[in-house]
Amino acid sequence: MMLKNDFQKKGAETLGEIWELIAKLPEQQLNNLPAGQTALVMIDLVNGFARQGALHSSRVAELIPEIIRLIKACRELAIPILAFADCHTEKCPEFDVYPVHCLAGTLEGELVDEVKTVGGYTLILKNSTNGFLEEDFQKWLQENPRMTNFIITGDCTDICIQQFAITLKTWFNLHDKKARIIVPANAVETYDLGVHNADLMNMLALYNMLGNGIEVVQAIG
């Protein structure tokens, strides 16, 4: 391994360059996307990440107004909305890595009230960090072959968002299909916990998604 001082110096320079890259990304206009080929995906805007429990964060709660705005805008354009909700069994091996959270049948595993109130979404429960693997999403994907533009919002940027976005993009690549997987930076977040520095993890995840063909933008106007 390189020496710590060398690592910190070089890493700081690289992080500065990544920050500049992310800061200069453009906005995307929702009405420029074809409604019949576009879907809004909302990942884990549940109480267990926004309001209560071992992994909840005020940073996630602060996403709610922007995502509600997007939901309403998409409904006006007849753009379908998918809402993934972390909802674990008690035996989920994920708890070997993360604290127990979002158990099925608890308030933590439910979408936040603001999302429930606005409605108009298809709910997909997930028992892992990668919602792409859920059978209900696979079925939806097969039943909607014209959907090739996906706007992905929610949390956590470096875990569930990143895994879903990259897996979805590589699935389209596998099938030789062009697709736009769009992640608005102002509508995704992660949490602070120990060395899990939210600002750093957010930035690195956005950069990693860019390098994997994901269209990261500042916001959806």
From TrEMBL:
<dbReference type="InterPro" id="IPR036380">
    <property type="entry name" value="Isochorismatase-like_sf"/>
</dbReference>
<dbReference type="InterPro" id="IPR000868">
    <property type="entry name" value="Isochorismatase-like_dom"/>
</dbReference>
<dbReference type="GO" id="GO:0019365">
    <property type="term" value="P:pyridine nucleotide salvage"/>
</dbReference>
<dbReference type="Pfam" id="PF00857">
    <property type="entry name" value="Isochorismatase"/>
</dbReference>
<dbReference type="GO" id="GO:0008936">
    <property type="term" value="F:nicotinamidase activity"/>
</dbReference>
<protein>
    <submittedName>
        <fullName>Isochorismatase</fullName>
    </submittedName>
</protein>
<feature type="domain" description="Isochorismatase-like">
    <location>
        <begin position="38"/>
        <end position="204"/>
    </location>
</feature>
<dbReference type="InterPro" id="IPR044717">
    <property type="entry name" value="NIC1"/>
</dbReference>
